[in-house]
Amino acid sequence: MGATDQVRQVGVFSTVRRSVRMTVGQKRVWETRWPELGRTQEDLPPGELDLGDWFGRTAPTVLEIGSGMGEATAQLAVAAPEVNHVAAEVYPAGLGQLMLWVEKYDLGNVRLLQGDALDFLRDHVAPGALAGVRIYFPDPWPKKRHHKRRLVTSPFVALIADRLQPGGTLHLATDWADYADRMLEVCAAEPALRNEYGGWAPRPEWRPVTKFESRARAEGREVRDLIYTKL
């Protein structure tokens, strides 16, 4: 059995579905733009998704896992119009807010996935299809008994590495010290990835500072980045 098949068996929970009310604006943009911009995991046809067809163009594609309220995704899409950006999130209000950013900045290079990014990668993304994967501030599940629910595990990192093209990047960031140490340990053990800095990466100036990160800093938690390249 390969690493891809093992992902579910080791208790990985990449996202948690929440039921949260959307604002009037988020509801409006969901009704008007979702058919164009979004897909739900349940509605995807079996097999590999044609990313070029989804975007209407062929371009390097980056997957952001857990896009939250979309502020960082939108800024990154504005800064890199030549890149296709897929934002995976289960939180409807977050996806709705991201679509509002898409409208504000008239972005044509953003698509949204509502569902579990793990299932999306495993079932719908071809090996070598992605130029990058970004995982910024995943749920830390701080209680020790919940650590098994953390997203970044050896099988999941192996799956990501398989879906990255040679030279593609995996970029992680977290403000929880023990999770950061575990990320470093897990990624260092993946033979298909090379740590670009041999350890913690300097904070990239191009990664937007979100309200979440600002709050973490204010509460005294150090933010650590890791950047890996697919060999």
From TrEMBL:
Pathway: tRNA modification; N(7)-methylguanine-tRNA biosynthesis. It comes from the Bacteria. It is an enzyme of class 2 (transferase). Gene3D superfamilies: Vaccinia Virus protein VP39. Keywords: Methyltransferase, S-adenosyl-L-methionine, Transferase, tRNA processing. InterPro entries: SAM-dependent_MTases_sf, tRNA_(Gua-N-7)_MeTrfase_Trmb, tRNA_methyltr_TrmB_bact. Substrate binds at K143, D175, T210, K211, F212, E213. It catalyses: guanosine(46) in tRNA + S-adenosyl-L-methionine = N(7)-methylguanosine(46) in tRNA + S-adenosyl-L-homocysteine. Its EC number is 2.1.1.33. HAMAP family: tRNA_methyltr_TrmB. Catalyzes the formation of N(7)-methylguanine at position 46 (m7G46) in tRNA. Belongs to the class I-like SAM-binding methyltransferase superfamily. TrmB family. This is tRNA (guanine-N(7)-)-methyltransferase. The gene is trmB.
